[in-house]
Amino acid sequence: MRISGQQDRIEVEIVDDGREFDPRQAPPSEPQPAGRRQPGGLGIHLIKQLVDRLEYKRVGGRNRTVMTKQYVSDRRSS
């Protein structure tokens, strides 16, 4: 895993050798009451809602997922 901060964004890159899985193609999570929710799917839903860009590539038998969140720095002069 790699986390890098730039002037206007933060990026998280995850590389693994698991089975091919593109999180951008995951179906939306169905709303369920808390006690009836089956495990799985909510994390991907949250990531899709929170990041500004979600990239995926399968390279050399490995999954490469990059999540980017843009931000505006509030650097006011005193």
Structure description:
This protein has 78 residues and is mainly beta. The protein has one domain (2-27, 42-70). Helices cover 12% and strands 36% of the residues. The chain is built from one helix and four strands. It has one helix spanning 42-50, and strands at residues 2-5, 9-16, 53-59, 62-70. The chain has a four-stranded antiparallel sheet, with helices on one face. A hairpin with a 2-residue loop joins strand 3 and strand 4. It is flat. The N and C termini lie far apart (37 Å).
Helix content: 10-25%
Instruction: Output the number of helix runs.
Output: 1
Helix-strand string: EEHEE
Main pleated sheet? 4 strands, antiparallel
Radius of gyration: 16 Å
In whole angstroms, the N-to-C terminal distance is: 37 Å
Query: What value does the average pLDDT take?
Result: 88
Number of domains: 1
User: Structural class, judged by helices and strands?
Assistant: mainly beta
Number of strand elements: 4
Short description:
By secondary structure, the chain is mostly beta strands. Helix content is 12%, strand content 36%. It contains one helix and four strands.
Layout of strands and helices, then pairs:
Layout: E1 2-5, E2 9-16, H1 42-50, E3 53-59, E4 62-70
Antiparallel strand pairs: 1-2, 2-4, 3-4
